[in-house]
Design brief:
With about 475 residues, the chain is of the alpha/beta class. Helices cover about 35% and strands about 10% of the residues. Helix 11 links the parallel strand 14 and strand 15.
Amino acid sequence: MEFRQSLHRLDGSVPCDLEVLSAADRSPLAWPCRVGHRTVGNRFCIQPMEGWDGTLDGRPTEKTLRRWAHFGQSGGKLIWGGEAVAVRHDGRANPNQLCYRPEHADDLALLLETVVRAHRSRFGSDADRDLLVGLQLTHSGRFSRPNRHDRPEPKIVYHHPLLDRRVGIRPEDDSVVLSDGEIAGLVEDFVRAAEAAQKAGFHFVDIKHCHGYLGHEFLSAYDRPGPYGGDFAGRTRFLRQTIQAVRVACPKLLIGVRISMFDFPPFMPDPARTGAGKLGAGIPEPFPVPYPGFGCDRHNPLQPDLTEPIRLVRLLQEELRVELVNLTAGSPYYNPHIQRPALYPPSDGYQPPEDPLVGCVRQMQAARQIKQAVPGVPMVGSAYTYFQDFLPQVAQAVVREGWIDFVGLGRMVLAYWDLPADILHGRPSDKNRLCRTLSDCTTAPRQGLPSGCYPLDPYYKNSPEAARLQEAKAALRKKLSS
């Protein structure tokens, strides 16, 4: 009751049920949903969660396959890509990101087989008949670090007045700006990876356009000259060309797009409040106007403006016939509090500048507005993990009220991968496994370690990497206290 009152004070329109319903109780989370020509068995979506644990040549490891098996055991019927797979080497966000290579195409089939086998083992031999599994395809753009964790090798669409310096780009260095010809070649790279996904048996691919990576950057390329910038048609040209080319080459594949609905300028720790072993609360960097951000008021970029995001989703549905849209916000690199609300930031991150519930509600309300404006395409919502103990009550209520079609779970499934199964089977949640947004899953890769739930998953908690993580965190606390 106290949580519902707090949520009501924050935003009285956000629905939250009093009791958790099971599938037998006809929970909205157990409702099937039609996606293209397929039926998805329930309303849980497992979001793409990278592990930073592939081989140096982009292949899955034991850790990778363990995580994908957990996705299959989760009980969620929509598996959104497992994790982002770079379509070529220079688009990897880290040296251990999965990467498509023709000589390793069979690895994609192994990933899919791992999910399906785990799902059948947990839920029955024919349980995958209403399971939908996709592969998220990406190029990391300005955040590419394909060869070393500590060496950015950015590829950008345009020079950004604030983000360039974060990855060491000089204002006069145009060598990192992709040419029109290079962009056309990148479309072909996405198509080749999609063809491999279709051959492996995936049901859909995601042409990733979120979180500050290359696809997302196209959407804010207001000042780029030529066909891939400027007006809305130019800034969406790469996405349109890629989807159209994949349609021709891969007629059996459904297509999804994950987009950041809105963006803010980058935030930084407040130096006046940094000390006692931690960085200060986040404050926005001074920003120019008009600001180059997608889905924000360019003259007041701390305020979302959903005019173009709604236009984009309408384009995806009406012109491009995209079957699925996954809605998120911002970027983990420069404004993580709007992307994945958390009470505890990574060790090198700023403290929350707002109640994390504000960030959850901001995303939910934006997704609601887009869903109301473009009701015909199934949509996935994000930022639900921070609800923690009350996630089921909020999730089933928003689905019932039509705010969103699928509830996406990301960080939660690293710690408690079978939460959807427990909810739908009427079992009480295991409070010792609920994600508490401690952010070690982010702190670890910042130190060049695999991502995982080090506090709650014994596999990581008892690993050699856990000791290295604690040493790195202690060193940073000491530095901030001096």
